[in-house]
């Protein structure tokens, strides 16, 4: 069971912190799911549950910390035991994150508005995923060339996770099309989750600003997962625009490629209610975490970033109209910071 603590990021991002619940939880789950796969264990992400019951079981102070997701791991052929008549709290002690905290009540309001209150609500919430298809490609396309199973790096997943971090600086050097293809392909094979039915469904679409990928013209692209290609929406050197969209930081401007996650929130909220917002953020975090692992497995660097929401959508018109920006991952060759000697 994974929880999110409001103040952990609210000191910096204030009410926007609620999105980080999905991103941080998702990147953590990407590691867990990868290890489960390496061990041959089935694993399923669970986003639908009765919030108050689980919070009470974990004995968290719901004013400060709340349960965000579960993962069911392993298999058992026997029938589950009947549920207990009463759930007793675990009584874990926790250490305060800081001496004082600033309360941002809108985060709690958002979480409460997306909570489920009974097993019947949970059962009704689960089910088919709303599918939003991309229009057929109309612009120039680049066919992806991912590594085959026989060609992928053989580093143990534990080594990749330990190597993985968040790049603080990128060198303005290109990555290969094979590296980009492998990251996109492996990250989007599917997630076993209770809000993704059938298996292989996804809520997010991936849009790219390509700055430096060998054999790919710089420009704005959209990823067609079913066709295993990227379509050029507009060519051009957009390093400056990428830097602006990523909150005017150098990282997205210097990265070889920026991968934006976007989704049709209207369709998602219509199907899943307010809890759909949790699901789409969590999925983006898992996909982003998989891209992280794909980058570091190929000895590249990656970092997750926040962004100017509306301007991201406006950058990809008219293709992204009606969608909302969810997450951003920048990928490239990490650059070592210069050491200043005294």
Give the gist of this structure.
By secondary structure, the protein is α+β, with helices and mostly antiparallel strands. It is built from 12 helices and 11 strands. Helix content is 36%, strand content 19%.
Explain the overall architecture.
The protein has 342 residues and is α+β, with helices and mostly antiparallel strands. It has two domains: 2-125, 3-Layer(aba) Sandwich (NADH Oxidase); 141-334, 3-Layer(aba) Sandwich (NADH Oxidase). It has helices at residues 6-13, 17-38, 51-58, 105-113, 119-125, 157-163, 177-187, 239-245, 250-254, 265-272, 275-297, 309-315, and strands at 2-5, 43-46, 65-73, 141-143, 170-171, 205-210, 219-224, 229-235, 257-263, 301-305, 324-334. The strands form two sheets. Strands 4, 5, 6, 7, 8, 9, 10 and 11 form an eight-stranded antiparallel β-sheet that branches. A three-stranded antiparallel β-sheet has the order 1-3-2, sandwiched between helices. Helix 10 crosses helix 11.
């Amino acid at each position: 069971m994974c929880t999110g603590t409001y103040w952990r990021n609210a000191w910096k991002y204030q009410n926007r912190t609620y999105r980080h619940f999905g991103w941080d939880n998702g990147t953590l789950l990407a590691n867990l799911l990868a290890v489960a796969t390496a061990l041959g264990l089935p694993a399923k992400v669970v986003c639908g549950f009765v919030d108050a019951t689980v919070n009470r079981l974990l004995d968290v102070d719901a004013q400060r910390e709340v349960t965000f997701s579960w993962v069911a791991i392993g298999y058992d052929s026997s029938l589950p035991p009947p549920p207990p008549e009463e759930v007793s709290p675990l009584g874990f002690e926790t250490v305060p994150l800081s001496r004082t905290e600033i309360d941002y009540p809108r985060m709690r309001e958002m979480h409460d508005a997306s909570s489920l209150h009974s097993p019947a609500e949970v059962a009704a919430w689960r089910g088919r995923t709303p599918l939003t298809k991309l229009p057929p490609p109309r612009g120039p396309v680049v066919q992806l060339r991912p590594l085959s199973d026989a060609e992928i790096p053989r580093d143990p997943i534990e080594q990749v996770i330990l190597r993985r971090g968040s790049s603080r600086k990128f060198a303005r050097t290109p990555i290969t099309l094979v590296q980009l293809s492998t990251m996109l392909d492996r990250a989007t094979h599917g997630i076993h989750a209770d809000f993704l039915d059938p298996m292989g469904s996804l809520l997010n679409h991936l849009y790219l600003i390509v700055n430096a990928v060998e054999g790919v013209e710089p420009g704005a692209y959209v990823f067609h997962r079913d066709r295993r290609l990227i379509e050029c929406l507009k060519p051009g050197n957009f390093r400056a625009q990428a830097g602006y969209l990523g909150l005017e930081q150098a990282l997205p401007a210097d990265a070889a490629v920026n991968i934006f996650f976007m989704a049709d929130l209207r369709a998602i909220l219509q199907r899943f209610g307010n809890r759909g917002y949790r699901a789409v953020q969590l999925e983006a975090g898992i996909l982003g975490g998989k891209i992280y692992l794909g980058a570091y497995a190929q000895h590249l660097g990656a970092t997750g970033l926040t962004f100017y929401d509306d301007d991201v959508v406006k950058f990809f018109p008219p293709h992204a109209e009606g969608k909302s920006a969810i997450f951003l991952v920048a990928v490239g060759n990490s650059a070592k910071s210069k050491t200043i000697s005294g």
